[in-house]
Amino acid sequence: MERKDGSSLIDLIEALCKAVPHLRIRLGSLEPRTVTEDFCRRAAALPNLCPHFHLSLQSGCDSVLKRMHRRYDTARFLESCRLLRTWFDRPAITTDLIVGFPGETEEEFGETLAFLERAAFSAMRIFPYSRRPGTPAAKMEGQISNAVKEERAHRAAQAAAALEQRHLASWVGETLPVLLEEQRDGLWQGHAPNYVQVRTPAEGNWHNLLADVRVTGVGEGCLMGEMAR
Prior knowledge:
Layout: H1 9-19, E1 29-30, H2 37-44, E2 52-58, H3 62-67, H4 74-87, E3 92-99, H5 106-119, E4 123-128, H6 146-169, E5 175-184, E6 187-191, E7 197-200, E8 209-218, E9 223-227
Parallel strand pairs: 1-2, 2-3, 3-4, 7-9
Antiparallel strand pairs: 5-6, 5-8, 6-7, 8-9
Helix pairs in contact: 5-6
């Protein structure tokens, strides 16, 4: 997607990464259609661009996406995931999900749960739909009760937790470069390039320093490790 001057998001990312080669650059939310073959090819050539991509999903059901007026469908979203996994080595792909959008049936919600497995997200943020006066969705028929929205959010959270656990477990035994940020409960913790939180015992002050950490296990929403020798 280009701006009026002909430049694109990947042009900006390239310029930024080259301007600060000593810093990690991490992207925020991406519209799925931004992820093209050219985008991935050029992004993969940037050594300081973190392999973590947050793609906006909202629903894993095409009929719900259509009611949301999204400009992509589940097939295009999966194509974005495929491209990222082709060009990057085990990238983390995260997303946001809204459950209980007006008119969402149990069958449509089931399609979303199945889609989460197909996309194999590493982590997710889940929100029950919140009715906001003055928005087109607030006027739609088929508003979902709070009880149903909460129940669906709970089921989606369970699916997301299982996916996250699977993603974390896949890194056990690997050594990751971790930017250690703070010490808590006697352990230093920080983030690997894939945005996974890693905790490790370490002596001295490691604030804002990089350390190679060998992953030894999985904690609650994080990886546990030891400083590599």
